[in-house]
Amino acid sequence: MLYLLLAMPFIAALVVAFASPLQRRAIGWLAALVPLTGLGMVLAQSPAVLKGEVPRAVLPWLPQVGLMFDIRMDGLAWMFSLMVLLIGTLVVIYARYYLSKSDSARRFFAYLLLFMGAMLGMVLAGNLLMLVVFWELTSIASFLLIAFWSHRSDAREGARMALAITGGGGMALLGGVILIGRIVGSYDLDVVLASGDLIRNSEWYPYVLGLVLLGIFTKSAQFPFHFWLPHAMAAPTPVSAYLHSATMVKAGVFLLARLHPALAGTDLFFYVVSGVGAVTLLTGAWLAIFQHDLKGLLAYSTISHLGLITLLFGLSTPLAVVAGLFHILNHATFKASLFMAAGIIDHETGTRDMRRLGNLRRHLPFTSTLAIIATLAMAGIPLLNGFLSKEMFFAQALEIEGHANMRMAMTVAAVLAGVFGVAYSLRFVHDTFFGKGPRAVEGDIHEPPRWMKIPVEVLVVLCLAVGIVPAWTIAPVLHTAAQGVLGAKVPHYSLAIWHGFNLPLLMSIAGVVGGVLLYFAMRRLLDLHAIVRGSLGRRIYLLNVERLYALANRFTRAIANGSEQRSQLLLVLVAMALAGVPLFGSGALWPAALPSLSSLPLLGWLCWFILVAGTLITLSMYRYRLRAVIVVGVVGLMVSLAFVYFSAPDLALTQLMVEIVTACLMLLALNYLPKEAVPERSTVRRWRDAAIAVTAGGGLAAIVYAMLTRPSSTIAGEILARSLPEGHGSNVVNVILVDFRGFDTFGEITVFAIAGLIVHALLRRTRMAPEEMVEGPPMPLPMAADLSQVLFPLALTVSIYLFLRGHNAPGGGFIAGLVLVVPVLLQYVIQGMERVERVLGIDYVRCIGIGLLIAAATGLAPMLLGYPFLTSGHVGPVLPVVGEVPLASATAFDIGVYLVVFGGAMLILSTMGGIRPSLLRKTYRGMIQRPDPAQFRGRRA
Amino acid sequence: MEIALASAIGILVAAGIYLLLRARSFDVILGLTLLSYATNLLIFSAGRLVPGKPPVLRSGIDPTLANHVDPIPQALVLTAIVISFAMTAVILVLAMRGRADNGSDHVDGTESKERDR
User: Fold this and answer.
1) Could you tell me which residue ranges the MrpA C-terminal/MbhD domain spans (chain A) (predicted)?
2) How large is the angle between the packed helices A318-349 and A475-486, nearest 10 degrees?
């Protein structure tokens, strides 16, 4: 049941996201049904939770790091779930009528449900890491919701700001949670909450507290991070009603309550949390007076109330905690209804600007009444819920023990907050519903549809019910939630309206009188409507973002200024430094004793000479490219011979084949590149590069020499011993490729296939100007044609032979695939591309695909039998006449390799050979001529 | 033969890096080809230089390191050779497209920078 409760919003979000956009009604119903059902499920758990039990469901998620999927519903989680789901239901109903036809309902509701799920997951988390995961998810979902009207730049900016700040806080929170995990040794909430003393006495406590509070303060818009909240008002109003009254911003104070037993109780906690709370309370309330936008005023008021809640948790006495929880509930109810009312006003008049509104009680009598009642709750007037929690706050401020100065400051702050609160509430009511107006509003104003008012009515009735008969309505909920935070330490408290004439009541009266006086005085003395305040926080934020961009740009420019040549130089230098530092740092380059060197036969020295000479010749005439390609080929042949001499027949064969194919490739490419390079002008640069090159070459030669003169330590003995009994092959290199390291090979053929497809994709539709073009059909070459006809079946046979014996003798998929390329290539040269492709009819792309599929299938087949990926099997059926045929499943894998190598190489070569000549551009002496405009116009016409 | 191989690799690397630092795309590709020879030889030589003992098991000879050369670097180099072919193909095509689209075979994609310096 708990799983279903949490899974439901996410599943519904998916369903809604993929629903037909035309079924707006069905989407709305589904979206409303989810929180309603959820509400039922939570209520079904109530008897247990009210009795003090904690329903729980645990699944391992990443147990290695202590992350469990742990749903745990204690009193606090229960209260928050109720709030999230109840207000969620009302918001969905409201949004259903608020969204206009042009807004995408499914996108909106999908985001909203995603957010609801994230919020539920966070409050129900029984594991701190899981809590952080859902915490981040709420940030992301809120980003999507704030930017719902993505065509508006203020929505995008507000969403980015909210994400940057709450996301940054989330990062800090993760750090704090990991530290807690280190201290406690577990992320399990029960363990953490029981280890309060351990955490508080740890030397890491200040860091833990700082990081966790950073997360809380950013999320709950506490000073100085409060500025993102007013900018998030660019969101559609239902989003504000949900996120910015009851859920998103409450996530911070929720965590404050959640971790209260683990973190609270120190002077540091007391001063920081209550201090920040008090500053936020006053700043928010003061700034709210100067807002002209209805939602802006509500946003600053929210900041102020969140400050109050933070302050209460900072005071840390059990009664303050109860008051904090109480105010969370009260604020959610009256603020959500006020946001909805603001949305109705916006909806009906087309503006939220209080300077243009006024006298709406004549036009919207019913809505006005509801809004005025909710505003009175916000101001803390008796008989409404806001009054009760405010009284509790006043009482707590007066009872701070042991910090005399703090008590004084808090009492003053409390009265001032009361004054400001009444003032901005009065402004909200007076400017909107009374006075003259509305001005410059289009169309006639009338009451909204029935269902848009119902959510507001429900919430206002709740405000009244809690305010008048608290003991019958809210008391059990509050008691259960307080138990969730305080455990057995829940104090005795009374939720009555009348406590007699006492100091808190006097403070309330002072607040109301002061607020009324302040508002009318300000109206009289200052022109409130003319004051426009910018947001300092926003300016600093934008400045920082700009600075960050500038820094990033400067860094990028310093590293990569767009010159590839320079980047390559840097790359080489960094690589040299990375190799050089350990090399010379360790000082172990030269062995102590003179090593015994093996001698090389004369033939070997001849090969060495050809290799070195070839390299130097390449270097001296690299500008004449045709010749350079041939000389490089000679160098490659010598490398191949080196492999022959040093006992690597497979490598020698592969190198030989690749050499042939690479030469063809380069010659094909040279038809589209200048045949000669322009001479270089800068002698300095050439000498500099030569110096770098010689240093690198010398260094690497030293490394190789040092390595070769040391004894080797290798696991090869094991592999040699196991090759035959376990890999069923005598050619150990091939056994390693297709069996021991088969997964590696699978990756490599995938890379090869991708390379082939890249070439195909880059050249398939291009037209290029060749350096030279031979007109007419291919030159007839009768002798060569005949020869190649004979050669082709022969080469095919050799290829298959090499493939089949590959497991036991030099050969295998790589080599056989390349061997097959050569005769096919010959056919291309002699018969022309079109004819060969017509006769052979091979689709190389498909060939690659089939090869990869075969390789993957042989890898996956053992998994069906319960073995790891690419486990090889072996059978030896005895056939008549032929005798025993050794068949390893690795052979099937090798077929995949074979097909991919052949298909990839042929795809590359045939695409490069089949480039169509450009119609517009021609090359002349190595320069591409610009298209002739006349010709261009002719083609267009 | 240790000296021969070390010096050959060193020369290949030096030539490769010098060409890698040139301005024209094809020269860079030639440099990469030489560098890949050098790299393959380097990895290969990690198995040490043993003539006449290929890692192919024959009946009657013990499958031990005394009778066979280390096969692991060979397996690594074999795929490296094939991959370096694929890599050469991709950068050749990039060079071709770069020149066709930019009108210059300078690796920076434009001629002007060369003249500025």
Assistant:
1) 610-675
2) 120
Domain ranges in chain B are 2-51+68-108
The answer to whether the bond into A886 is cis (omega within 30° of 0) is: no
CB–CB contact B27 A745 (8 Å)? no
Question: Are the beta carbons of A732 and B57 separated by less than 8 Å?
Answer: yes
What's the pLDDT score for residue A50?
A: 87
Chain B environment of A644 (Cβ under 8 Å): none
Contact list in A for residue B117 (CB cut-off 8 A) is 682, 685
Please answer yes or no on whether A714 and B50 come within 8 Å at the CB atom: no
Which amino acid makes up residue A219? K
CB contact under 8 A, A704 and B30: no
Residue with the two structure tokens 């002496």: A925
Q: What is the pLDDT of residues A416-460, one digit of tens each?
A: 999 999 999 999 999 888 888 777 676 677 888 888 889 999 999
> CA nearest A753 in B: which residue?
B86
Mean pLDDT (chain B, rounded): 86
Q: Which residue of A has its CA nearest to B27?
A: A622
**Confidence (pLDDT) at B116:** 41
ipTM of the complex: 0.93
Rounded Cα–Cα distance for residues A486 and A261 (Å): 7
* Partner residue facing A647 (CB), from B34, B52, B114: B52
Distance from CA of A862 to the nearest CA of B (A): 24
Q: Is A676 on the interface with B (CB under 8 A)?
A: no
Residues A283-304 as b or e (16 or more Cβ within 10 Å = b): bbbbbbbbbbbbbbbbbbbbbb
A757 vs B: CB within 8 A = no
pLDDT at A440: 67
Q: Backbone phi, then psi, for A769, in 5-degree steps? A: -90, 115
Does the CB of B61 have a partner CB in chain A at under 8 Å? no
Structure tokens at A715: 């696991």
Which residues of chain A are modeled with pLDDT < 50? 936, 938-941
The CB-side HSE value for A421 (13 A sphere, CA atoms) comes to 33
Q: What is the mean pLDDT of residues B43-56?
A: 86
Residue A213 touches chain B, beta carbons under 8 Å: no
Architecture, CATH, for domain B2-51+68-108: Orthogonal Bundle (1.10)
Boundaries of every domain in chain A: 150-535, 600-679, 731-774+781-941
Which of A604, A678, A930 lies nearest to residue B1, judging by beta carbons? A604
- What is the reported pLDDT for A863? 76
Grouping H, G, I as helix, E, B as strand and the rest as coil, residue A917 is strand
